[in-house]
Amino acid sequence: MVITIGREFGSGGRELGRLLAETLGIEYYDKEIIAEIAKNTELSEQYVKQVVEKNPHELFPITVAHTFSYIDTQEIQQKQMIFMEQEKVIKKMAETSDCVIVGRCADYILQDFKPFRIFVYADMDSKVERCLARSENPDELPRKKLIKQIKSIDKNRARYYNYYTGKTWGDMLNYDICINTTNVNISDLVPHIAKMVKG
Amino acid sequence: MVITIGREFGSGGRELGRLLAETLGIEYYDKEIIAEIAKNTELSEQYVKQVVEKNPHELFPITVAHTFSYIDTQEIQQKQMIFMEQEKVIKKMAETSDCVIVGRCADYILQDFKPFRIFVYADMDSKVERCLARSENPDELPRKKLIKQIKSIDKNRARYYNYYTGKTWGDMLNYDICINTTNVNISDLVPHIAKMVKG
Fold first, then answer.
1. Residue A63: its pLDDT value, please?
2. From B126, which residue of chain A is nearest by alpha-carbon distance?
3. Long-range contacts (CB closer than 8 Å, 24 or more residues apart) made by B51-60
4. b (16+ CB within 10 A) / e for B26-39
5. Is B4's pLDDT higher than 60?
6. Residue ranges of domains in chain A, CATH in brackets
7. What's the number of CA atoms in the CB half-sphere (13 Å) around residue B199?
8. Across the interface, do B177 and A177 touch by the CB < 8 Å criterion?
9. What is the pLDDT of residues B58-106, one digit of tens each?
10. Do A121 and B172 touch (CB under 8 A)?
11. Mean pLDDT for chain B overall
């Protein structure tokens, strides 16, 4: 049993994933993926995180007009290697145990495992509230700035997903179920989704 | 408890609605809406059906360049009256009993009832298969023609919904949950959705 979760920033997708794994008694993989890549590549977690969360256009340049120096090329090869390692790590995790994986295009990477694919979304007000609720200094986050941040993060997720999978992030057809968490208590929802996944 | 179902043609939304109402032991309204409008307006069911399923642009003309004859105007007024009657009928049904209502922009018309709003969709292959399975003469339906029909019906549904509600048909944010019925046995799904709705 493999469950993948795509989610808008602030929609509570990570919370839903964690609770779902808990309810089903299966593994939950999130930051563990970065740690595992770092271990396998002998690079720092911080560096790996920075690379896998970067705009993939920068990593797989398709333009020929640009000339690369030797150092550029080496750096790009290392980054591509991290990406390929990520794919390996995710596949190995899914092979090893039933699990929930959040983000990382896992729905695409694990398509041969026939995962149950969830997309979590919410309206902007609700996403802002969720971000403020989990912030340590909510007073220092002006609403307008937060909205801009949420949009920018999701834009990056979409770009990453679309580039990497050739499909469209958030397009219903890529998921088995799409869940609106606006005004919803996620822990109330989880038992029902767990049963749905078990079939 | 009011549940509204928007659905792509061929996705099995109507079946899902019927089974959901059965499982929850509540009313299921579909063709009953047309019958009730016909009764209240003393018009034939066939005529009412034809009007409410028509492109609403034709009913609420916004152009001033077009000149209406007296007969045109009378006809338009009668059609508008049917539309208003539909709204009344749907609201009355929701007031009278817990129910599932399929289509008819019921999610919008019943927004004050805080309905649980479902959208049902599937990939094209799956929709074609469902259409063929319920057809009496599947051999007489060339696949290409069927796909064209499915697209045309959904285009009309979208136009109707968008015009009437000012929102976008099939936009996730208009629904609490969106369900992909591709390769899914709808009757397996229904008990879980029923529990989710009950909360």
1. 46
2. A173
3. B51/B79, B51/B82, B51/B83, B52/B82, B52/B83, B52/B86, B52/B104, B53/B156, B54/B79, B55/B156, B55/B159, B55/B160, B56/B83, B56/B159, B56/B160, B56/B163, B56/B164, B57/B159, B57/B163, B59/B83, B60/B163
4. bbbbbeebbebbbe
5. yes
6. 2-198 (3.40.50.300)
7. 8
8. yes
9. 555 544 445 555 556 777 788 788 888 999 999 999 999 999 999 999 9
10. yes
11. 88
Element (H, E) at A28: strand A27-29
B23 falls in which pLDDT band (50, 70, 90)?
A: very high
Pick from A5-14, A64-73, B50-59, B152-161: least confident: A64-73
Nearest by CB to A177, which of B179, B188, B199?
B179
Q: What is the pTM of this model?
A: 0.89
A65, pLDDT greater than 50: no
Give residue for tokens 């770009």: A159
Distance from CA of A87 to the nearest CA of B (A): 26
CB A158 within 8 A of CB A170: yes
Residues of B in contact with A177 (CB under 8 A): 177-180
User: Which residues of chain B have a CB within 8 Å of the CB of A120?
Assistant: none
Average the pLDDT over each of A54-58, A88-92, A156-160, B104-108 and give the range with the smallest value.
A54-58
Please indicate whether, in this complex, the C-beta atoms of B172 and A173 are within 8 angstroms of each other.
no
Given a cut of 80, is residue A118 above it in pLDDT?
yes
pLDDT at A93 over 60: yes
Q: Which of A177, A195, A196 sits opposite B178 (nearest CB)?
A: A177
Tell me which of A174, A178, A193, A195 to substitute to probe the interface with B (most B C-beta atoms closer than 10 Å): A178
Taking any CB pair shorter than 8 Å as contact, residues of chain B touching chain A are: 121, 123, 170, 172-173, 175-180, 182, 184, 188-189, 192-193, 195-196, 199
* Cβ-based contacts under 8 A for chains A and B: 46
Tokens 């019921």 belong to which residue?
B106
- Among residues B183, B189, B54, the alpha carbon closest in space to that of B129 is found at B183
Average pLDDT, chain A: 89
